[in-house]
Amino acid sequence: MHKSEVIATCLVNSNFANNIKSGEVNIQNIFHDEFPNHNFHDWNTNIPDKTAENIIKNVGRASKIDVKSFIDKLWG
Length: 76
Prior knowledge:
- This protein is mainly α.
- The protein has one domain.
- 63% of the residues lie in helices and 0% in strands.
- The chain starts with a helix and ends with a helix.
C-alpha cells in the first residue's frame, strides 16, 4: 500500500474525504504546498501491509488528522 493510500484511508474512515481517490488528491496537493522542494512520487513509496494496517487501526476514526505531520512521519 502506498503512503498516500494509507493516509487517504484514514481520512475516509474519519469522514474527512469522500473516497480514497479524492483523499489522495488532497494529500498530493498538501504535499506540494508544504514540501515544495521534494518529489511526491519519490516520497509515496509502498509500505508493508502490516505496517499500513497498524497505522489505519491506530488512527481509527480520529476527530482531527494533521496531513502535513502524517506525511512527515511517513518520510522514511
